[in-house]
Specification:
single chain; alpha/beta; about 35% helix; binds nicotinamide-adenine-dinucleotide
Length: about 230
């Protein structure tokens, strides 16, 4: 076996030993993920750990943050949990202190904790009528509005965060990444949510004779060159 092959095998072995990942795009980085006990945040925490990051799994005291941190460690990743309301400055500072104390540095903060406000159906508790605030109609419409015709997975969102937090995004500054299956650009069938009685066209008062007689344009009708009336 030559040196090159040995090095390659060493590298692969180390990578698998580290955390089951052969990526390592966030090797050596330390990241705080807020709202990491559930949903998208959980996926970001796992993804970052798989990529080699050391992770602070931050969430409210009742969130399953210890579970997530434990699962990451069981996968040979590195993680600690931090419980606190991150909207309070004191808790935010404590969270940063914990990162520095445990891992000696801080490279990335993912501000994921928050309130669902968007019209994008990622597959978390918010977007299921059984677990979130939506009724059956809203859930259906939300998914119909997605050109990719399905919910996005928390992992698909986490993949984008992992790229942005990695050195691969070294020339990206202040860019907005929309992870929405095309919803924003398509605008979606929001009219489906309007009650039937509000969908009637108004009758109108003008005596319109030709409102549906149009369609003529250069593409559909050859306009013969002729004299204008005003030319006699
Ligand atoms: N699910 C979607 O379809 C969707 C779409 C667009 C945007 N988002 C955004 O993505 C983020 C995550 O959404 P999700 O669906 O995973 O929701 P989620 O409710 O599963 O996760 C959010 C987590 O943040 C925690 N949290 C809330 N406030 C906190 C605070 N002050 N301090 C610490 N932790 C706090 C919650 O307890 C929860 O565990 C949210 O900001 C949401 O607005 C979600």
């Amino acid at each position: 076996m030559n040196d090159e092959t040995r090095n390659f095998i060493d590298m692969r072995t180390k990578s698998f030993e580290r955390n089951g990942s052969d990526h390592g795009r966030l090797e050596e980085k330390v990241a705080i993920i807020t709202g990491a006990g559930t949903g998208i945040g959980e996926a970001i925490a796992h993804k970052f750990a798989r990529e080699g990051a050391r992770v602070v799994v931050c969430g409210l005291p009742d969130d399953p943050i210890e579970d997530v941190a434990k699962a990451i460690r069981q996968n040979k990743g590195k993680a600690v949990a931090f419980a606190g309301d991150i909207s309070e400055e004191r808790a935010a500072k404590q969270c940063v202190d914990l990162a520095i104390k445990e891992f000696k540095r801080l490279d990335v903060v993912v501000n994921n904790a928050g309130v669902f406000l968007d019209n994008v159906p990622i597959d978390t508790a918010w977007t299921h009528k059984e677990t979130g605030p939506m009724d059956k109609e809203m859930e259906k419409t939300l998914i119909q509005a997605v050109p990719l015709a399905r919910r996005g997975t928390p992992e698909e969102v986490a993949n984008v965060y992992a790229f942005l937090a990695s050195d691969e995004a070294s020339y990206v500054t202040g860019a907005l990444y929309v992870v929405d299956g095309g919803t924003t650009i398509a605008k979606g069938p929001v009219g489906d949510l309007v009650p039937e009685k509000l969908r009637k066209e108004p009758k109108g008062e003008l005596e319109l004779q030709h409102s549906r007689h149009g369609l003529r344009n250069k593409q559909t009708h050859k306009v013969k060159p002729g004299k204008l009336k005003s030319e006699g």
